[in-house]
Design brief:
501 residues; alpha/beta; FAD/NAD(P)-binding domain; 2 domains; nine-stranded mixed beta sheet; 25 strands; 30% helix; globular
Length: 501
């Protein structure tokens, strides 16, 4: 639903503003409907459609890299037979949830938040929003007209994801401009791209690359995955047989919750095993790859030089990428790029790879809060100087929370807990007559530490701009669902660290 600026001027204050209408933003709106039905809220979405990641990414085969029993919402069962679902199915699920909880009327599309300023005197945020008004007859074709309007709210809840939507990351390769073929980044996939019968190089080895390779191999002449270094790749069925059995035996919600808990426990077990016995996990993963494509491919292309879960593992549902390699439709090359040429890429070992199309599946640009400028009582907030509280709020920043998922499990597991906590916090403040809350770092023994213990490229490139975590609770980022469940769903809101006024 689009609301004109003139209408907005009559209803510019809300109890809560949710920024972002993606997976976490729609989940947040549904949680407010359930737990805080008396509160007014709006969802501001910078793009012209809901769904976030699952509307943005349109590349072939786009899918989740987590099972949908944990990536789905706790409060709304995933009904599709596939546990590893494709992008359109996930987008449908998000939009159905929005309709079921009557959220469409709360979403303001084309509303991009640029600045949020907190006033302690007024106990509210004033939010500057750039509103797209479509094209103007006197403007250059394709150029949108924008107008800045202001909203205010008592609580600001950021559900903006973790990366820059405008463009992905592309390294500065030597000779890049010499290449005469087509170059495509998966984040900007052309709708009319025809690659049938063509030679394709996919540069990268992460989740996007292992998704693209088998999907494009179905019609391309040949697809080569060019990786600088190997990634851990594991295969699993796209359909969960145990979940299917639960569905046959139990009511829908009970079956969903059992499947969800089964997968939470499985994820945590393998993550802890990876951390405590990395050599064993390396052998286990290698054994699976060897069974799929043999010893030679394993040793050349699937032996990473880091431990499992130092970076996120890649899932190959139903062995589709391995099947494409076995069938000769796809291949993997491991090596460093020396330079691009007119016809393709030359590696440092002298090998030359020709391609009609090159796909740069080289990662994301990490950008929390979507570049939002925060100001508290006239002072700009430097995110690199603040500390994350319970993985969802920030030191000395009042009445603001951010949904940020796990790196070692499904994104939504943590976001669901965060939304529940935000509702608990708001109700606690109402009960005790408080208008503001802010986490304060009072213990000098708590030292700042790197917020993400993860060495993926997109994380390393952004570390200097990210908030820190603390050395002790509640400033410690657990990456552990059980610890967060105890802290966020059942732990005390008034914990001595949160300051209320």
């Amino acid at each position: 639903m689009r609301i004109g600026v003139s209408a907005l001027q009559f209803m510019d204050h809300f109890d809560i503003l949710i920024i972002g209408a993606g997976l976490s933003g729609i989940g947040a709106g549904a949680r407010l409907r359930m737990d805080c039905p008396d509160k007014t809220f709006a969802i501001l979405e910078g793009r012209e459609a809901s769904g976030g990641t699952w509307d943005l990414f349109r590349y072939p085969g786009v899918r989740s890299d987590s099972d949908m029993f944990t990536l789905g919402y706790r409060f709304r069962p995933w009904r599709d037979p596939k546990a590893i679902a494709d992008g359109p199915a996930i987008l449908k699920y998000i939009r159905e949830t929005a309709r079921e909880y009557d959220l469409e009327k709360e979403i303001r599309y084309g509303h991009r938040v640029r600045r949020a300023e907190w006033s302690s005197e007024d106990a509210r945020w004033t939010v500057a929003v750039e509103v797209s008004q479509g094209e103007h007859p006197q403007q250059t074709p394709g150029e949108a007209v924008h107008e800045t309007v202001e909203f205010s709210c008592s609580f600001l809840y950021l559900c903006t994801g973790y990366y820059r939507y405008e463009e992905g990351y592309t390294p500065e390769w030597p000779g890049f401009r010499d290449y005469q073929g087509m170059v495509v980044h998966p984040q900007k996939w052309p709708e009319d791209l025809d690659y049938a019968g063509m030679k394709v190089i996919v540069i990268g080895s992460g989740a996007t690359a292992v998704t693209l390779v088998p999907a494009m191999a179905e019609t391309a002449g040949h697809v080569t995955m060019l990786q600088r270094s190997p990634t851990y790749v594991v295969t699993m069925p796209s359909q969960d047989r145990i979940a299917k059995a639960f569905r046959k035996l139990l009511p829908e919600r009970a079956a969903y919750m059992l499947s969800r808990w089964k997968n939470v426990l499985r994820q945590m077990f393998f993550y802890e095993l990876s951390k405590k016995r990395p050599a064993f996990m390396k052998r286990l993963i290698a054994k699976g790859v060897k069974a799929e494509i043999g010893e030679e491919n394993l040793e050349k292309h699937f032996r990473p030089n880091y431990n499992p879960w130092d970076q996120r593992l890649c899932i190959v549902p139903d062995s589709d990428m391995f099947a494409a390699i076995r069938d000769g439709k796809a291949s993997v090359v491991t090596g460093e790029i020396d330079t691009f040429t007119e016809k393709g890429v030359r590696l440092t070992d002298g090998q030359e790879l020709e391609a009609d199309i090159i796909i740069t599946a080289t990662g994301l640009v990490l950008k929390i809060m979507s570049g939002l400028e925060l100001v508290v009582d006239g002072k700009s907030v430097d995110l690199s100087k603040v500390m994350a509280y319970k993985g969802m709020m920030y030191s000395d920043v009042p009445n603001l929370a951010q949904a940020f998922g796990y790196t070692n499990a499904s994104w939504t597991l943590k976001c669901d807990l965060t939304s529940e906590y935000v509702c608990r916090l708001i109700k606690f403040m109402d009960t005790h007559g408080f208008s503001s809350c802010v986490p304060r770092l009072k213990d000098p023994a708590i030292k700042p530490e790197r917020v993400l213990d993860f060495n993926s490229g997109y994380v390393l490139r952004a570390l200097d701009s990210l908030p820190s975590q603390g050395s002790k609770h509640p400033w410690r980022l657990h990456q552990n669902y059980f610890k967060d469940l105890s802290m966020l769903r059942y732990g005390s809101v008034d914990d001595g660290t949160m300051e209320f006024r």
